[in-house]
Amino acid sequence: MTRKINIAVIGTGRMGSVHVRNIARLIPEANLVAVCDIRLEVAQAVADECGIQRVVKDYHELLADPEIEAVLIATSTPTHAFIIKDCARTGKQIFCEKPLAMELKEIDEALEEVEKAGVKLQVGFNRRFDKSFQRVHDIVASGEIGRPCILRITDRDPDFPAMEFLRVSGGIFLDLSIHDFDMARFQIGEVDEVYATGSVLIEPELNEFGDLDTNVITLKFKNGVVAAIDNSRKAVYGYDQRLEVFCSNGTAIANNEMETTAVKGGTGGFVSAKPPYFFMQRYAPCYVEEVRQFVECVRDDKPTPTTGTDGRAAVVLGHAAWKSYRENRPVKVSEIG
User: CATH number of the domain at 5-119, please?
Assistant: First the structure.
């Protein structure tokens, strides 16, 4: 019989509660032994729903328990780095939602503790686990359609998150675009240069704190491949998620998934279904698969599919994009660190 991994979840807000339900119901390789949140009533509610007996307010209680092998961190971004350090020091294997932190110094300190402790760290870049994006990666990596030349990513949210969130999110390049930076590295490799431009075209309130709702980012990779990423905070037709890698002998494309594949034809033309409304629907299987693979890596002592290095690299690209936007010039990744 396959050994189960004892895991605890720290943070039971929007993403944490998704992970709790997934682990409890859909990941038999894990044994969810406890949940934690400073808002005890929030943690208790999801624990009651999923039949979890142990609920705590202070995550240090979980770190002191030798029976807990791994932790999943889904707290607010400013807390990630110091919780990672505490977990590493007690020998826990770690899954942490992105971003690891906003500041590179904090990330570097956390990664140093992880390396010193010899524990695993997986960062929650869920889109790498999407079957369509994975298939594009595999087609290109096989070489069957030649050398990659151009990467295009469209990533548009259906509507704005709360303004309270946006004010502390790090801005569009460190919040929305960060997934695309990781996907770009996953598809092509390391980035050499970033040029970003953008505007406030939909929500004037963003001007108050210097954020954007519309942007286009161009990347030049170390292998010469070029990329174009476009982002919007509001696509009224649904959650727009498209990707293409154009190669010297063909192309690999992942189009939007639709609510259904049915198309209605009539005198007014053809009408198809909308894309899923938001990331919770579009990427639901990915949230299960990323944690399942993490648990498998802990159980079988394998490297995690997304690492602290991946987490840091995406934040570096976010900072490079902001620097490029503010200085209106291409920015070498080496300028950021």
Answer: 3.40.50.720
